[in-house]
Design goal:
This protein has strands at 6-13, 19-29, 36-46, 57-62, 70-79. The chain is globular, with a radius of gyration of 14 Å. It is mainly β.
Length: 83
C-alpha cells in the first residue's frame, strides 16, 4: 500500500457542498537569512458529512482525485473553532 500524506490546518472557507478549503502553515528556514519563515498553502478537502466549520482545526488524508483540485478527504476534526 502506498504512503498517504496527512495534512493539518485551519478551515478558512466552506466552498460548495461537501468541500472545505484548508489553510496549511509550515515553518521553513530561509536559505539566505537563516530565519524561520512561515509558508502557507490552501487545499480543497472532501467533507462527506459537511461536519467541519470555518475556524476548525482538522486533519486530512490523501486519496484518489475526487475533482480537478480535490485530492484529500477529511480524517478528523482536531479542535472546534470559536463560534
Amino acid at each position: 500500500m502506498a504512503y498517504k500524506r496527512v495534512i493539518q490546518g485551519t478551515v478558512v472557507k466552506k466552498s460548495g457542498d461537501k468541500t472545505i478549503s484548508l489553510l496549511v502553515e509550515r515553518k521553513v528556514m530561509h536559505p539566505k537569512y537563516h530565519k524561520i519563515v512561515k509558508r502557507f498553502k490552501k487545499y480543497l478537502v472532501h467533507d462527506e458529512k459537511n461536519q467541519a466549520n470555518v475556524g476548525d482545526v482538522v486533519t486530512a488524508v490523501e486519496c484518489r482525485p475526487i475533482s480537478k483540485r480535490k485530492s484529500f478527504r477529511l480524517k478528523e476534526i482536531v479542535q472546534a473553532g470559536v463560534k
